[in-house]
Write a structure and sequence with these properties.
The strands form 4 sheets. Strands 5-4-1-13-14-15 form a 6-stranded parallel beta sheet. The protein starts with 8 loop residues before the first strand and ends with a helix. The chain has 2 domains: about 10-45 and about 185-270, HAD superfamily/HAD-like (Rossmann fold), CATH 3.40.50.1000; about 75-180, Rossmann fold (3-Layer(aba) Sandwich), CATH 3.40.50. It has helices at about 30-35, 55-60, 75-85, 100-105, 130-140, 165-175, 185-195, 210-220, 235-240, 255-260, 265-270, and strands at about 10-15, 20, 25, 40-45, 70-75, 90-95, 110, 120, 145, 155, 160, 180, 205-210, 225-230, 245-250. Helices cover about 40% and strands about 20% of the residues. With about 270 residues, the protein is an alpha/beta fold.
Length: about 270
């Protein structure tokens, strides 16, 4: 990593990196504090489209991690931004919760089930058979199909839950239409995050816990990547992938010293003083 330009911006996944089942992972609060101390621009990324950035800020704060609302970038926000760039003042039939509906509404989209431009599928706690049926019929009539992320399952204390990708597969099998996924591993989400904080890929690092979403999306967006072993991907699984992260560490606690180590030289000197 030292052969490349200094790191001035950081992107990090949330679940499995900073928190696990509502509890902070050791070193997470210190990592955010280090970013603030060194005045590094950063975003916390998540494929979860259920919650608004304000909701997630509160959830992180409850676990002891203070992240500003504007430093949280969700697949719902990325999806809304993507659609607004495609069709200004468009319309959408949405299956999802407040994180997705508010993001689209805030960017001028009309939410309707009458001849919408798009069917937008996100994550929800209760997928309705009636809503899925409506989505299928609208896609059959020509509505373009977009989904926030391809994750087929999500975690819960009782075990896996069906997630956006699984429901998208149901709609696709019924219509023959594949959705466009905006969230990770699509590097589009990384690019939108970089644009949001005015960052350049050459000077940005992505921290994640999944090889198949965080790391591959970071690599395809031209970022350096750090895999932490506190989430989905184990150390033994890393070698099964045809690509490699820039670095593999045990946890976010091991990333804290890297914030200053990979900072611009003048920042390192000021920190030493």
């Amino acid at each position: 990593m030292t052969d490349r330009p200094p790191v001035s911006c950081w992107l990090t996944d949330m679940d499995g990196v900073l928190v696990r089942e509502e509890h902070a992972i050791a070193g997470a609060a210190e990592f955010i504090s280090a970013l603030d101390h060194h005045e590094r621009r950063f975003l916390v990324l998540t494929n979860n489209s259920i919650y608004t950035a304000r909701d997630l800020r509160f959830r992180l704060l409850a676990s002891g991690i203070a992240v500003p609302e504007e430093a949280i970038w969700t697949s719902a926000l990325a999806t809304a931004q993507f659609l607004a760039d495609q069709v200004r003042g468009g319309s959408a039939y949405v299956i999802g919760e407040a994180g997705l509906t508010s993001a689209l509404h805030n960017l001028g989209f009309i939410l309707t089930d009458s001849d919408p431009d798009y069917v937008v599928l996100g994550e929800t706690r209760t997928y309705s058979f009636e809503a899925i049926t409506r989505a299928i019929r609208l896609v059959e009539k020509g509505a373009r199909f977009v989904a926030t992320n391809p994750d087929v399952t999500g975690p819960s204390p009782e075990g896996s839950l069906p997630a956006t990708g699984a429901v998208a597969a149901l709609i696709s099998r019924a219509t023959g239409v594949q959705p466009y996924y905006v969230g990770k591993p699509n590097p589009l989400m990384m690019r939108s995050a970089l644009n949001r904080i005015d960052a350049h890929s050459e000077s940005t690092v992505m921290v994640g816990d999944r090889m198949d979403t965080d790391v591959i999306a970071g690599i395809e967006a031209g970022l350096r990547t750090i895999l932490v072993l506190t989430g989905s991907t184990t150390e033994a699984q890393v070698t099964a992938f045809p690509y490699r992260p820039t670095r593999v560490v045990e946890s976010i606690a091991d990333v804290v010293p890297l914030v200053s180590e990979y900072a611009p030289r003048e920042d390192q000197e000021m920190s030493a003083d």
